[in-house]
Structure formats: C-alpha cells, structure tokens
TrEMBL record:
Keywords: Membrane, Transmembrane, Transmembrane helix
Domain of life where this protein originates: Eukaryota
Presence of the UniProt keyword Transmembrane helix in the record: yes
Organism, as annotated: Brassica carinata (Ethiopian mustard)
Membrane-traversing stretches: 93-114, 143-163, 175-194, 214-236, 257-274, 286-306
Range of residues in the leader sequence: none
UniProt lineage: Eukaryota, Viridiplantae, Streptophyta, Embryophyta, Tracheophyta
Protein name: Cardiolipin synthase N-terminal domain-containing protein
Amino acid sequence: MLKSINLPISCNFSSFPHLKPSRKAQSLSQPRNLTLVQSRAPLPFLKPDRILLGNNNRQFLKHEKKGLFHVCRSSLNNPDPDKTEIQDEGRDWTSSVLLFALWGALLYYCFNLAPDQTPTQDLYFLKKLLNLKGDDGFRMNQILVGLWYIMGLWPVVYAMLLLPTGRSKTQAWPFVVFSFFGGVYALLPYFALWNPPSPPVSESELRQWPFNVLESKVTAGVTLVAGLGLILYALVGNAGDWKEFYQYFRESKFIHVTSLDFCLLSAFAPFWVYNDMTARKWFDKGRWLLPVSVVPFLGPSLYLLLRPALSETTAPTDSSASSSDPSQ
C-alpha cells in the first residue's frame, strides 16, 4: 500500500532510519508527498516516529529548540516539490533593536549633548562651504573643507554598495538619497531594517539606470581619485590647521556632528564591503581587500574599483531565464 507514497526527505543526517508504516498510512488511498525541511543544525532529538500525518495531510509537528523552529511542511498543494518556497518562521530582531537604539542615542547626543558654543560661527562656515558667501579674506581651514566635500562622496560609495547587493524588502534608495543630506543618520534606519538575503538583479536591470552607473568602473575610479585628492588637500595644509580643527571640534556642533558622521560611515563600510563581496562570490580572491576597507573612504573606494561586475558572477541572463520558462 505504500508504493503510491512519495517521501522526498531533505536533511543532513548521514543515514535515516527506516520509517515503519503506521495504521493511518496504510489506509491512504491517494498518492501523498511529504517534504521534511530541516536546518543545518544537527537535531539528535528528532526521531522518525515524531512525524505525524493528519486527516487533512497538513498537520505536522513543529519542533522547537531554544527558539529555533524546525517545520515539516506538506507539498500537496505544490505540483513541483523542488520549487517549494521556504518562508522564514521568525526573525532575530536583536541587531535591529541595537541599531535603532544606536540611532536614537546618536540623535539625542547631536541635539542635546554635542557642544554648541559657536552657533553664529557654524552658520558662517556653512555659508562659506556652500559658496553662499563671497570672498571676504577669511581663510577656511583646509581639513574642514576636505571633510565637507568628502562627506558628499560617501553617499556615492554607499549607493554602490547597497543598491546592487544590499537591497531588502525595504527600499534602499530613499535612505541613500537622504544620506546626501543626513549622512549616516539617514542610513542607520535602513541598516536596522535590512533583512538578508538580497533579491537578485537581472541583467536587464543592470543595463538600466541607476545600476549601469553604480556598476561602472568609471564611477568607481572618479570617486576614488576625488576622495584621494581631498584627503591629500586636507593633509598638506598648514601645521596649525589640525590644532585649529581640534578646537572647532570641541566647540562647534556643526563640525563635531560632521566628524562623528565621517567616523561612523567609515566604521560601517567594511561590513557592507564584505556583504557585497560575498554576494558577488568573490570572497576567495578579494578577501585581502577586507582589512584594506578599514582605511576610511579609500579602502571601500578601492574595493569598488577592483570588484568584478555583478553580471559576471550572480546575475541571471535573460536568455537562460526565458529558455527555462516552460510556457514558451
């Protein structure tokens, strides 16, 4: 009576004991498919006699161990068991809660605790940097000028890291756009909401804007050269510029918050470099760039210049997708 029963089982056991037919199984008259979905973690407590078949063939035991669910799903309603979609039963929100807490703490610090002794001077500096104030003979600090313009390049770097391979159910582009104005303070909510794995990008999408620009070596090269020039400009300034900048950092809210923004963007960049590297399946060849990505701005920019194109690694071709379509 069990010849009409198909039991495809997926697990990590080297061998699986023989399942003895139960009385309920012997009374089955229609073919039934059962798919056992199990995580990679070894489960010594899971035994064959714990698998149950209900009258409607949908009731299975849900095994739980330390909050991790191991679910047995029926594939009766799916004509192709190999294409059964496995949905997450839950999500660990610990990192999201911590990132939201960090975001809230940063906002509270910036608005309430950051030094704010020179608000008039901050407004003057902002007008000078935005070219809203003419030449009045005042020499701007070169470190401050370099920091200001390199903060406009950081969103380009994060756009090249997040939009192709750091996408999620939550759209990334609004956060990237706002990061041109808010820096890491606009990106942190997306970091908290990000839930891997990222959806794949087709070759047709890679040929369209903005992916064709973000995947371009020209964009990566221009970003790296511009950032290197700004850093050299800041470093070759007068000897007193660093002492003056440190004094600004202690008194000015504008410079204090901007400097903190730069440090946080540099701290989060290596993680997204690693995520992009693994998504492109380039970790074995490009792992040496991970410690390099710790170098503020220059490390991630160098990775963007050397990384392989996404179309050469993971993006499915449109022709192969159309040939695999059974309707054609």
